[in-house]
C-alpha cells in the first residue's frame, strides 16, 4: 500500500485497482449551503427549461408563536438571506400565518403551484425543500406505465437468467 502527501491512498492488487480518498470536513462559511447533485451528464445542477427558471415566486408561510414553526424561523434567520442572494431570479415573500403549520408554496410560470409542509423540520431540511421547489419544473408527476422506457425496444425479447440451449 502506498501513500502520498495529498491525503490519497491507493492499493493495487493484480489488475484490480482501488483508490480511497480521504475527505476533509466542510466548513459552512466557505461553501455554498445549497445541496447539489453530482451527475455524469451535466455540470449544471439547477433545473431550468430552455434556459428560463420555472419557479417565479416562493412564499414562506410561518407562525411567530407556534412550536412547529421553530425550524422555519431559524431558516429565515440563517439560510434565507443566502438563498435570496444566490437566486436573484426568484421572488421570495414571507407570510405570517398564526394557528397553522408552516409551509412553502412555489408558484411556477405554467400557472401551477406546489405546497410543501415543513412543520417540525430542521433549517437544513427546510432549505432542502426550498431548493427542491426551485429545481422542479412545476409539472405534475406522471407515473410511468413500464419500468423500461426506450425508443428502440428489443426485438429478441426480455433477457432472463434461465438460458436454455
TrEMBL record:
GO-annotated molecular function: structural constituent of ribosome
Compartments where located: Mitochondrion
Pfam families: L51_S25_CI-B8
Keyword list, A-Z: Mitochondrion, Ribonucleoprotein, Ribosomal protein
Domain Ribosomal protein/NADH dehydrogenase: from-to ranges: 64-137
SUPFAM superfamilies named among the record's database cross-references: Thioredoxin-like (SSF52833)
Entry keyword Ribonucleoprotein: yes
GO annotation, cellular component aspect: mitochondrial large ribosomal subunit
A GO BP entry: mitochondrial translation
Superkingdom to which the source organism belongs: Eukaryota
Family per similarity comment: Belongs to the mitochondrion-specific ribosomal protein mL43 family.
Name of protein: Large ribosomal subunit protein mL43
Organism, as annotated: Prunus dulcis (Almond)
